[in-house]
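Raw record, unedited: Putative pterin-4-alpha-carbinolamine dehydratase
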Amino acid sequence: MADKLTDEARDTKLGPLMTAGWAHDAERDALTKTFKFADFAEAFAFMTRVAIVADKMDHHPEWFNVYNRVEVTLTTHDANGLSDLDVSLATTMDGFA
Ligand SMILES: C[C@H](O)[C@H](O)[C@H]1CNC2=NC(N)=NC(=O)C2=N1
């Protein structure tokens, strides 16, 4: 099971994600970001690519899609907050977007 991020890890790992447009939902201890694409096909292609990686990681996003918009929430349910898996999946998503 993934461990919740320590304060030290948060200091180093969350900063770059905030710069990349992620926000921290303190109530849920989650990362959130809204991705926008040209159209539905591109949004769904992004989700498909992410889904394959997420399933291999056994770490799954909470997300909501309407047309060209994908709203993402990342948190580790087993840890009741953020873990390295969320940082890794967020970075993967940014790479695909
Ligand atoms: C049994 C299975 O490994 C767990 O339920 C996995 C699946 N995907 C998961 N995804 C996320 N985001 N958090 C988890 O704790 C989690 N746990």
